[in-house]
Specification:
The chain has about 80 residues and is an alpha+beta fold. The chain contains 2 helices and 2 strands; from the N terminus they run βαβα. A two-stranded parallel ribbon has the order 1-2.
Amino acid sequence: MAYAKDFKTPILLSVGENDFRVPMNNTLEMYAALQRMRVPTRLLVWPDENHWILKGENSRVFYREVRDWMARWLK
């Protein structure tokens, strides 16, 4: 969070509610900080996933979101 004040690049955040590596609260704090600074940000929350988004349809949606995010911001 110390460096969040310097962020300007659009950021796609993804968090599984069962993630034991990165507490969901950390992701929510980062998202809130980026929103306050008006950094283009999108947050994907996966209620039934861990650190990796592995379940069939969730995985398809995740990679579609990443693809669409990249297509939008990497012009």
